Amino acid sequence: MRLPQPLTEELVKEVAGDDVLPLLRLILGKENVSEFKIADKLGTTVNHVRNMLYRLNEHNLVAFTRKKDKEKGWYIYFWTFDTFNARQLIVERKQKKIADLKRMINEENTTGMYVCPNRCVRVNAQQALDLEYKCPTCNSLLKEEDSRQLIEKTRSLIDKIRAELNEAMASEEERLSEGKPSKKRKEKAKKSKSVKKTPKKKVLVKKKQKSRPKPKKKPRR
User: Fold this and answer.
1) Both 19 and 49 in a single domain?
2) DSSP secondary-structure letter at 168?
3) Would you say 77 and 65 are in contact if contact means Cβ atoms under 8 Å apart?
4) What is the C-alpha separation between 90 and 12, in angstroms, rounded?
5) N vs C: which end of the chain shows fewer Cβ within 10 Å?
6) Structure confidence by residue, pLDDT tens digits, 86-113
């Protein structure tokens, strides 16, 4: 299971801007894409492409290699989107959002919130007390807000973010499991690593030939 593209696009939009999305779609799932090819496809300059890529590189979302053009003498850069780092960043950001929203719900439940009738400000109970329950902008009397509806919306948002987080983490677990060798592959690897004992060569021992008896010399007459 690959990292869902909507989550990847959401991340890139947050950290690098909406204008980087067309570039992302060109390099996503590919390796070592020439910056000149990207510029040609997008109908823009190489400098503009590099500006977008540098924004992604600030968050370690792209990796590059370079190759020198023998004819022109300059370096051409080839770019690859780093899905692993993107997944890690998505997980970190989603976890932080959930923590912030939970903290907000806790504050709503424990302290209560006060709002200006003209929607100038919205403050917690302590801030309202410090302001003597008067809006610092229009001097209207601050009213306690019924935040039950807001809390329910926030809880629904947490559930949505948690589902996206689980999706990103599930794709990582599957990626890791795909990298692990199966039992059969492990057994084959063990067999290939084990040194096979070569059968001992039979040493052929030549039989000693029996020496023929030397003919007896005839006695001289």
Assistant:
1) yes
2) H
3) yes
4) 10
5) C
6) 999 999 999 999 999 999 898 888 878 8
Mean pLDDT over the full length of the chain = 83
- Do 53 and 9 sit in the same domain of this protein? yes
Tokens 């492990």 sit at which residue? 186
Say how far apart CA 141 and CA 16 lie, in whole Å. Answer: 42
Task: Kindly report the pTM of this predicted structure.
Answer: 0.69
Share of the chain above pLDDT 70, in %: 76
Q: Where are the alpha helices (DSSP H) in the chain?
A: 5-16, 21-27, 35-42, 46-57, 83-110, 125-130, 148-179, 183-193
The predicted structure's pLDDT at residue 109: 82
The number of folded domains in the chain is 2
Specify if 206 maps to a domain: no
Cβ pair 88, 95 in contact under 8 A: no
Pairwise CA distance, residues 39 & 114, whole Å? 52
- The residues facing 50 across adjacent strands are none
Rounded to whole angstroms, the Cα distance separating 42 from 160 reads 33
Does residue 217 sit within a domain? no
Going by pLDDT thresholds of 50, 70 and 90, the confidence category of residue 221 is very low
pLDDT cut 90: percent of the chain above it: 60
Q: Which domain holds residue 164?
A: 86-178
155: tokens are 């809880």
Per-residue pLDDT, averaged over 187-207, amounts to 48
149 and 134 fall within a common domain: yes
Q: Is 29 left (phi over 0), alpha (psi -120 to 50) or beta?
A: left
Q: Which of 82, 101, 125 is the last residue of a domain?
A: 82
Identify whether residues 10 and 49 lie together within a single domain: yes
Q: Are residues 13 and 73 in the same domain?
A: yes
